[in-house]
Amino acid sequence: MLGLGVYRPRRVVPNAEIVDRIESSDEWIRTRSGIGARRWAEPDETIVEMSAAAARKALAATGIDTEQVDAVVLATSSQMVLGPAAAAVVATELGMHDTAAFDISAGCAGFCYALASAASLVRAGEARNVLVIGVERLSDLLDPTDRGCAFIFADGAGAVVVGRAESEGIGPVAWGSDGSQTAAIKQDKDFQQYFAEVAAAEASGGTSERPYIRMNGQAVFRWAVTFLEKACRDALDRAGVTVEDLDAFVPHQANSRITDALIRVLEVPDTVAVARDIAEAGNTSAASIPLAMEELLRSGAAQQGDTALLLGFGAGLAYAGQVVRLPSIG
Ligand code: UT7
Description:
about 325 residues; alpha/beta; Peroxisomal Thiolase, Chain A, domain 1; 6-stranded mixed sheet; 5-stranded mixed sheet; globular; binds oxa(dethia)-CoA
């Protein structure tokens, strides 16, 4: 990863703005999830605009120009159109011409899936440099009265440029998925169900609700704190390092109690900087890992070149982890 850039939406939404509609409290949200505030995008802060802004910063951090980028890989679960791929529109927005571009849908594991794919493209000689983007506008999918989701999910974008380096900077990925657990996090209805409901409501004079994201928080939490230890250990083993060799740990910012549980079970030493961006950013799904890396680097808790374990996990139930060297920030 040669350079990193992020885009954080302008509007900061503190817990106080959310609690009334879900009969909650600032204290409950902070204690149970670690979230103090999140950012929700305004209408002009689209998936494409946020991605392009993050990508420009990532490119600026490397000195690589768009002509030298051979592919754009964009991870998201909240692009509200089925086509074209957001990556293609972002590439054009950045002034690229005839560049390979595609989206990846792997929930909150999306950034790490995209990173693994980009690293393989570069290693195989299929691309000189690949722009990897994780971006979400999950506020578009939130039922503001859903107690399990309304306070968690948030918006933002992060991008890295993946390219050749003297030494290995992205370790082998440990990844997988379990489609039998689809119900744990999902959009609650598809377009056809929604249109059928709208038609029925029109006929009966009733109402219909648009699709929303739904989560069985306890099921995901249980899976995360039991299954993901193995994913972390596999990623470390495949890179030939141990937790003692780490400078930083950057898990998906799902819940600070999940992060705490992973630190405990992996026996991560106190000297390792642990990403806690969730406190200010909420859970931004595919964007959370680049945003969290940026926070660690910007605050000085970690440095460019540090060895970090990344771990994305969520809907699917998909996960991906890899040991990396941290990039410079733009
Ligand atoms: O990014 C994708 C991956 N996502 C995740 O990894 C999320 C994983 N799950 C979680 O982070 C947690 O499950 C949540 C933060 C979503 C919920 O925390 P929890 O500790 O699992 O809460 P719970 O559902 O077990 O509910 C505990 C209590 C219940 O009350 P009783 O039955 O103990 O009296 C709930 O009714 O908390 C109550 N509760 C709430 N109270 C205030 C549930 N939601 C809320 C709320 N505010 N928003």
